[in-house]
Amino acid sequence: MHEEEKISDNGDIVDDVQREEWMQQQITLKSRLIETDDISFSTDNEFTGLRYIGGVDLSFVKDNNNDAIASLVVLTYPALEILYTDYQKVSLDYPYIAGFLAFREVAPLLSLITSLQSKQPSIFPQFIIVDGNGTLHPRQFGLACHLGVLADVPTIGVGKNFLQIDDGVELSMPHVKKVTKDVLKKGGDVYYLKGQSGTVYGAAVRSLDTTTNPIFVSVGHRISLDTAIRLVLRCCKYRIPEPTRQADICSREFIRTQNLEKRQSSS
DNA sequence: GCGACAG
DNA sequence: ATCTTGTCGC
C-alpha cells in the first residue's frame, strides 16, 4: 500500500495523470487571460463609475472535507455596504492540492455568479475579489484567474498566506517572510514578488498600519496588478478586504445556524 | 530522496 | 481550511 495519489473522502483519486491533465487545462485557459485593465469604471483616484464589488469564499464544515458553503456577496462602493448575499451548500469533487485549488472550488463559485447574473443583472459586480491567488501561482493561473476567465468577469486574487513558487530564492518562503517584515512598514506599503526569471507574480501588501501580516495580491483577470492593489487597499477596513471578509462571514454564519438546528433536533 | 505547499 | 481561551495592548 504505497501510493502517490491523494484520495478524498468520497473516493475520488488524483494521480499524476490527473495532475498532468489539469496542468494542460491551466496552460490552455491561460491563453485567454487578460492582465490589463478591461473594466467598466475609471482608474482615477475616485474610481469614478465603480458602484458594485463582489467577493467569493468557501467555508468548511468541521470534520468533513467534502461539504462546504460557497458564498457570494456584493458590496456598494465607496460605502462598502452589503447589497446582496447568496450562498450554497456544495459537495466538492476533489481534495485540496496546492497549485490546483481551482479544480476543487471553481464550479460552485461559478454557479453563484451565473445565478446572480440571471437574477439581478443590474447589481452584477464590476469586479470580484477571490479568496485565493491569481497569477501568484506556479503556472500563473490560480483560482482567481480560472474563475475570471470562465465567468468572463474582472477578478483579483487575494491570499492570506504565501504560496511558494519555483523561481529563485526571491520567491522562497523564508526570504519573502523576512523581506516582507522588513519592507512593509505602514498600511499601503507594497513589495512586488518578482522571480529570478523577471516575472512579477503579484505583491505582498500591508493592508493597514495596525496589521503586521501582509496579504498577497495578484492579477485575476481583466485587471492590471497596480490597479488591483489600489482597489484592494480601498476595500480594507481590516486586514482582509471587505468583499471576501463578508463572504467568509456569510458562509460561517450559515454553518453556525446549521449546527444550532442539529442541537435542537437531537435534544 | 526530503520537505514545502493558496484553501 | 479547521481545532480553540484567554490575554496583552491601544
Q: Mind explaining what this structure looks like?
A:
The chain is an alpha+beta fold and 267 residues long. It contains 6 helices and 10 strands; from the N terminus they run E-E-H-E-E-E-H-E-H-E-H-E-E-E-H-H. The model has no long low-confidence stretch (mean pLDDT 92). The structure holds 2 DNA strands.
- Measured on Cα atoms, how large is the radius of gyration? 19 Å
Q: What do we call the CATH topology? A: archaeoglobus fulgidus dsm 4304 fold
Number-wise, the strands total 10
- CATH superfamily assignment? archaeoglobus fulgidus dsm 4304 superfamily
- What is the helical fraction, as a range of percent? 25-40%
List low-confidence stretches: none
- Structural class by SSE content: alpha+beta
Main CATH class? Alpha Beta
> Domains counted in the coordinates: how many?
1
Task: Give the overall average pLDDT.
Answer: 92
Major sheet summary line: 8 strands, mixed
A few lines on this structure:
The protein is of the alpha+beta class. 33% of the residues lie in helices and 23% in strands.
From the structure above, extract its key features:
archaeoglobus fulgidus dsm 4304 fold, globular, 10 strands, 6 helices, 8-stranded mixed sheet, alpha+beta, 23% strand, DNA-binding, 267 residues
Chart the SSEs and their pairings:
Blueprint: E1 6-7, E2 13-14, H1 16-30, E3 52-60, E4 67-76, E5 82-91, H2 101-119, E6 127-131, H3 143-151, E7 155-159, H4 173-183, E8 190-194, E9 200-205, E10 215-221, H5 225-234, H6 242-265
Parallel strand pairs: 3-6, 6-7
Antiparallel strand pairs: 1-2, 3-4, 4-5, 7-10, 8-9, 9-10
The protein binds two DNA strands through residues 57-63, 65, 68, 96-99, 101, 104-105, 131-133, 136-137, 142-143, 157, 159-164, 172-173, 210, 216.
